[in-house]
Amino acid sequence: MDYPSLALLGEKLAENNINLIFAVTKNHYMLYKNFTALIPGTTVEILHGDSKNIIQLIINAYNSIRSKVELSVWDQPEDLNLFFTATCQDGVSYPGQRKCEDLKIGDTASFEVSVEARSCPSRPVEHAFTLRPVGFRDSLQVRVTYNCTCRCSVGLEPDSARCSGNGTYICGLCECNPSYLGTRCECQEGENQSVYQNMCREAEGKPLCSGRGECSCNQCSCFESEFGKIYGPFCECDNFSCARNKGVLCSGHGECHCGECKCHAGYIGDNCNCSTDISTCQAKDGQICSNRGNCICGQCQCTEPGAFGETCEKCPTCPDACSTKRDCVECLLLHSGKPDNQTCQHLCKDEVITWVETIVKDDQEAVLCFYKTAKDCIMTFSYADLPSGKTNLTVLREPECRTAPNAMTILLAVVGSILLIGIALLAIWKLLVTIHDRREFAKFQSERSRARYEMASNPLYRKPISTHTVDFTFNKFNKSYNGTVD
């Protein structure tokens, strides 16, 4: 079958005693968690992205299955009502519950099953149904025999004196012979009946046979009604005038007897609309109404101020559970983890203590708590509520304390920090100077390339060699010379 329903899937799993494990990611955990209520014997675990926790997941699921027992019903007849009461390992009875959890080796759980017939079959018949623990091959077949006949019919007294000699005494009643009437067959048809009419009134001034029958020989003969049956010594009773809920007589969970609903097993109230099943009041942590209210008619009525929700699970103003359980943890640490101290026994009376070396911080079923000790250490613990009403308290064996730093380490760290800061500042200064110089040089280069001058000599420039011409005449050694000198 391509798309089986959850009911069909649960039926096939139960037939083959298969326990189903949903290994899903964290995003889909709550969706599949709701399926566990529809498919008995299933568990849900969170699978990591790399699937490395698959072995631990199977171990956790096995431990969960091993510590839980739940009854399932097979082939329940439609005309029978079954009501379960579970007595778990704590000795407390839970009406309407058919499972116990957190069982350990040696614990005992018992179940009481009440069977009620809604009606008697028209002919003798024997029905049977089967009780089976989910996930086990053991089963108990229950055969039901209807007890709709009276054993007193064996000892008949024909023409009994108890019936004025005019009838047969059977099962405490007179069955009158033809033409005789009355509870003791004391009247005969055709006699003056006015003498006996007062005996057909329920009280003085009341109508004969409550206005719903005829009086004949000190006896009311009730009328027939299209709504049901009218009966009683004074026709004062019927099976259709009881309280109704949403138009249904006795809410469909009881029988109407003389104006009063006689509720089936598992229901109470004037109109049998109140269920005694407490499973609908069970919170996700297994506690009834989250220990903040009472389960009345299958619904939680919160008594803790500020609590609300279907199971009183929401309570912004309630005391923090971490704070209330901190006293127990501090007492255990003070007395070296020994809960036999009288003070610790009082503070931890509802706690199941487990000491560990490390705390699992991603556990979906537990709440993680922290607090700082007097020695400035961090103490970590987690708690998870159990169906029994107690709390599984997982405590870290030793608080996490920070070691005091070494003085030399601090000194070296400070000196090193100063040096690093100085070197960093110098590097930044050098970088800024280099950037500034490069910008100035680039500016100079740019301005030089834009300058365009004509080629000419500097008027102030003098050549290193000068030429002068002098005219002169001289006479020496009777020789004369006339010319120029450069």
From TrEMBL:
Membrane-topology annotation of the record: Single-pass type I membrane protein
The record lists the membrane-crossing segments as 407-429
SMART domains registered for this protein in UniProt: INB, Integrin_b_cyt, Integrin_B_tail
Q: Where is the Integrin beta subunit VWA domain?
A: 1-150
* Residue span, Integrin beta subunit tail domain: 322-406
Q: Tell me, what is one Gene Ontology molecular-function annotation carried by this entry? A: integrin binding
Q: What is its main location?
A: membrane
- Top-level taxonomic group: Eukaryota
Location in the cell: Cell membrane
| Gene3D superfamilies, per database record | 4.10.1240.30, Cytochrome c1, transmembrane anchor, C-terminal, Laminin, ntegrin, alpha v. Chain A, domain 3, von Willebrand factor, type A domain
Q: Which GO terms describe its biological process?
A: cell adhesion mediated by integrin; cell migration; cell-cell adhesion; cell-matrix adhesion; integrin-mediated signaling pathway; stress fiber assembly; transforming growth factor beta receptor signaling pathway
Which Pfam families does this chain map to?
EGF_2, EGF_integrin, I-EGF_1, Integrin_b_cyt, Integrin_B_tail, Integrin_beta
**What Gene Ontology cellular component terms go with this record?**
cell surface; focal adhesion; integrin alphav-beta5 complex
Where's the Integrin beta subunit cytoplasmic domain?
A: 430-477
What keywords does the record list, in alphabetical order? Calcium, Cell adhesion, Cell membrane, Disulfide bond, EGF-like domain, Glycoprotein, Integrin, Magnesium, Membrane, Metal-binding, Phosphoprotein, Repeat, Signal, Transmembrane, Transmembrane helix
| Family the entry assigns | Belongs to the integrin beta chain family.
Q: Tell me how this protein assembles.
A: Heterodimer of an alpha and a beta subunit. Beta-5 (ITGB5) associates with alpha-V (ITGAV). Interacts with MYO10. Interacts with DAB2. Integrin ITGAV:ITGB5 interacts with FBLN5 (via N-terminus). ITGAV:ITGB5 interacts with CCN3. Interacts with tensin TNS3; TNS3 also interacts with PEAK1, thus acting as an adapter molecule to bridge the association of PEAK1 with ITGB5.
The UniProt function text for this chain reads:
Integrin alpha-V/beta-5 (ITGAV:ITGB5) is a receptor for fibronectin. It recognizes the sequence R-G-D in its ligand.
The protein depicted here goes by the name: Integrin beta
- The source organism is Spermophilus dauricus
What is this organism's lineage?
Eukaryota, Metazoa, Chordata, Craniata, Vertebrata
